[in-house]
């Protein structure tokens, strides 16, 4: 089942980092764009090279669906090929598509992305605004096929509080209420390491909330975006982990894809070295996260 | 701009009905499935026939993205072809995809679906849980390109209240707060008929809430799902309209796609007559809605 597979893959690599492949075409280095004849094949090449470079030191990869949809129908093929490749080299594959609907429509999304026929992701991000009717069709497939979902609880963006931080009559915030729902939805799908295949998305940019949410959802695997480019650091995310340094996975997209441009490498890399730079950054991130969570 | 185009198209047809094309393959009659060699071409044929039959008496069509995504990458082409055809015969084209994300990712979704390059919908449904950062990239394109969005406020499903009905500290519910946000986001994009291109989704299954929300969002065009198969009738949706019977559009999906099976036609139609049955149902729906809103 998903929670166990992810947990064990993190243990094996010793690295709670997920590489976000959100390939805006501007992020693809000229060295690739010059040698490919379309945006779609440039993106595919870029993805495959990064996956080849990092698959032995990271547990998982997260594809941001929007950038593939932006390419039109061909982007769906690029996504499918990239996901299949990541899976073939043993990475856990998360699709960040934030889908949401009800009943048979939610079931169609669940089958499209978590079913075996087309994309076969290991996990999908989902928006829970619609309540149980919008989650059950996804959690049913998680249970039947060993897949996972991550439900948006507290997002990393500056204005996430407009709705999510509103206080309810009983003193809880909307995001805490969402966390309680997630905790309830996930309690029947818990694996042998104590984590549920129904996880949650909580932004790295809200460290205090992250610690609070870790407690409200003790069994939820947390997917934490917002590290690096959005401003979150290792100390900001540490409270998303349990006392043994488990139970969370931290996403870096631009931080890895565009590592060669990073000031921290002070000109060491050019666009031709984007893979080496990404590998260096993934190792730095692993060390920073393990240090912050007192692991190893 | 979108709000004016939709308003005028409703006036012209005298019918505030939007046909939902949510083509689960089981909905496609045998007469079509026997003569096509794939699910994708069966769906395309089904859509084109329904569009041909109804385009002179309805203003708009709404495509449910999930059923096209369920077909895999080829489904993206089916969606694109269906949308282009609906547009070519003069229908307003709404894509129901409930997308949501932040910043450049939300912009990628907005460009993918509201931009000219691939799908070129007139309007897109959006989930507002992420706040202004998640809406601005969409509303910017609405403003620049005369497009529209419909933001989920109160959804039609039984469990929508789990989060949406929660009472906030000030006595408002979460969905009312969302409605206030929608009202604020839309106030700069109001057309000559007084309606904004930033609309809202409110379910037909919650008549009381519909009336309340009409008042909180006086300028929002309301997209009302849940009519027919989900249980909402003309009297349930009437409070979603303004005092002149304008400002809302009511979706029917199964009610039109599967009209030939409806008990109300007591065996008059077979699967071969699905188009005639859909036309009959669209006219019944027009009459029922206009009667309920006192619009001759």
How would you describe this structure to a colleague?
The structure is a homodimer of 296-residue chains. Chain A is an alpha/beta fold and 296 residues long. The first copy, chain A, has a single domain, classed as Aldolase class I (TIM Barrel), CATH 3.20.20. Helix content of chain A is 45%, strand content 16%. Chain A contains 13 helices and eight strands. Chain A has an eight-stranded parallel barrel with strand order 1-2-3-4-5-6-7-8, surrounded by seven helices. In chain A, β4, α7 and β5 form a beta-alpha-beta unit. The longest helix of chain A is centred in the last third of the chain and has 19 residues. The two termini of chain A are 26 Å apart. The model of chain A has no long low-confidence stretch (mean pLDDT 96).
Q: What do the pLDDT scores of chain A average to? A: 96
Cα radius of gyration of chain A in angstroms: 18 Å
Largest sheet of chain A: 8 strands, parallel, barrel
Return the CATH architecture of chain A: Alpha-Beta Barrel
The number of domains of chain A is 1
Strand residues, percent of chain A:
15-25%
CATH structural class of chain A: Alpha Beta
Looking at how many chains there are and whether they match, the oligomeric state comes to: homodimer
Measured by residues with Cβ under 8 Å of the partner chain's Cβ, the largest interface is: A-B, 59 and 60 residues
CATH topology term of chain A:
TIM Barrel
Number of strands of chain A: 8
CATH superfamily of chain A: Aldolase class I
- Overall structural class of chain A, as computed from helix and strand content, comes to alpha/beta
How much helix, percentage-wise, in residues of chain A? Answer: 40-55%
